[in-house]
Amino acid sequence: MKILVTGSSGLVGTALVRSLAKDGHTVCRLVRPQSAAKGESKDGFDVAWNPATGELGGAAVGADAVVNLAGASIADGRWSAERKAQLHASRIDTTRALVHALAKMNARPRVLVSASATGIYGNRGDEILTEESQPGSDFLANLGKDWEAEAVKAEAIGIRVVCARFGIVLSKDGGALPPMLLPFKLFAGGKLGSGKQWMSWVTLEDAIEILRFALEKGDVRGPINVISPQPVPNADFTKILASTIHRPALLPAPAFALRLVLGEMADALLLSSQRVLPQKLQQLGYVFHHPDLAAALRSVLSQN
Questions:
Q1: Most C-beta atoms within 10 A of its C-beta, which of 25, 52, 231, 272?
Q2: CA distance 299 to 261
Q3: Contact in structure between 192 and 176 (CB atoms under 8 Å)
Q4: Any bridge partners for residue 201, and if so which?
Q5: Which pLDDT band holds residue 41 (cuts at 50, 70, 90)?
Q6: CA distances from 214 to 23, 65, 114, 273, 274 (A)
Q7: How far is 148 from 13, CA to CA, in rounded Å?
Q8: Looking at the DSSP assignment, which residues form a beta bridge with residue 116?
Q9: Which of 241, 236, 235 is nearest to 253 (CA)?
Q10: Which residues of 128-161 are buried (b: 16+ CB within 10 A; e: fewer)?
Q11: Amino acid 42: pLDDT
Q12: Which domains can be identified in the chain, with CATH numbers?
């Protein structure tokens, strides 16, 4: 297949491009004008992409599929009004421009897999959440709803759309895990707040396989929860993480201290509870490489 990928320089994008290219697919990394051109490489080649104008380079012609992973990092900096606007624009405006560009193609891709996040459910305590659950109403939930609404517009031009709702992606190379590990390595790790909030996670390996599953399997459409089938409370997560690296988990971080340092981000990213299950993936027959957290962390942390 010929596959267009936005957000190809991120943690998930880099791994996905490498995986697809390794298996012989033609991968076009859609890059903005300000990005340095890399040209051709063993992992595909760059195609000019300007979200501001919707202009898409001619090399994108003939694409079979698109994976949209573009979006500024949620955790980079406190959420000022300006930062929230950046987070919104990097997702919603970019996805809207991408769908408009695809609509102009004479021969359109068959499928668009567009990133979303389990934050769309909001803070839901112990409630079990599936793709059929209603969204929440906080900032991240509204961001997710707007993001998915733009992607789904591609259905009107005959493109199958999958909204991949990512949980916490576990990898040594980036994302949430390295910052989590640091306090434990310094013997200062522990649960966050009450520790009762549920954490929905997935290994990078499974995340990539799920994206490929969505690309290749024609009956995958709509939202899918890209998380393992075994979410855990934060207190359990921290105990398992500490045990995996042979450190204690003795120093909890009080909720008030997290809020003092991070503001609104603390409640949304660290103290919010989402007990999410991958109902659709299991119904469709996807088999997880790492369904169990302890085994998943051992595998992830042993990788070179």
A1: 231
A2: 32
A3: no
A4: 168
A5: low
A6: 16, 10, 10, 26, 23
A7: 18
A8: 165
A9: 235
A10: ebebebebbebbbbbbbeebbebbbbbeeeebbb
A11: 61
A12: 2-175+200-228 (3.40.50.720)
- Residue 39 in this model has a pLDDT that exceeds 60: no
pLDDT the model gives residue 33: 74
- Average pLDDT on 34-56 reads 75
Which residues have a Cβ under 8 Å from the Cβ of 231 and sit 6 or more positions away?
A: 167, 198, 199, 200, 201, 274, 275, 276, 277
Residue-level pLDDT at 40: 54
- Name the token pair of 252: 């909890």
- Which residues make Cβ contacts (< 8 Å) with residue 71, sequence separation at least 6? 7, 87, 90, 91, 94, 115, 147
Assign residue 125 a region (left: φ > 0; alpha: ψ between -120 and 50; beta: otherwise).
Answer: left
On whether the pTM is more than 0.90, the answer is yes
Residue position matching structure tokens 């609104």: 264
pLDDT of residue 225: 98
